[in-house]
Amino acid sequence: xxxxxxxxxxxILPLTTQCGHESDTSELSESAENKPTLVVMGGRTSCxxxxxxxxxxxYAMGMYSRAKEVMDMLxxxxxxxxxxxxxxxxxxxxxxxxxxxxPNKIAxxxxxxxxxxxxxxxxxxxxxxxxGHSYGGWLAMKTSLALNAEDQISxxxxxxxxxxxxxxxxxxxxxxxxxxxxxxxxxxxxxxxxGQWVNFFQTQTWYLHASAIKEADINYEVxxxxxxxxxxxxxxxxxxxxIAARY
Length: 247
Known about the structure:
alpha/beta, eight-stranded mixed β-sheet, Rossmann fold
């Protein structure tokens, strides 16, 4: 049975069309306490060519533009300065990513190396918020599991998460649910390590969609196709509300 969407849209700043990243860290403060780090994880085809000619680049993701709006709103409305990690993850099992600490460097890593990087490089006072779409949603769940027990995640936002193990070109019939290779006990562990887990899913794209996740704190069914749900304003206004509530 389809669920109703209860998303209350907040005022969103105009969409950032510039993919360059020279100004993205100009207002970051290394000394801020409880500074949020927003880790954005895109899916298989989310990377592209950015305004500086880098290809593939996570700065080309539509999710980056929405995440930038959230970070701008946090600063403008709450005086909170944010760090970021941007990534995309596809069939090659390689995570392509960039960080606010080295904004002009686009790096590559395995998902294990990526998880280790988040553990080692997060600030002692930084709060982690994961937002992952499609394969990136699966990666967000897997990364949450891999973090040490003391590395609590303040917020986890899975956006139509699809398993890279169960869903691929060779396994097209494993693409109609949230990741089933992440078992119930593991999902419960994710919930216990997360301040708030919000799961967004859709069923418009009948051959490629996630589903409600019982262990998530909140499930929203969104009226959007799989390729569109990650940039829907209502999804990101909900993400903003969860983050802003902690500051």
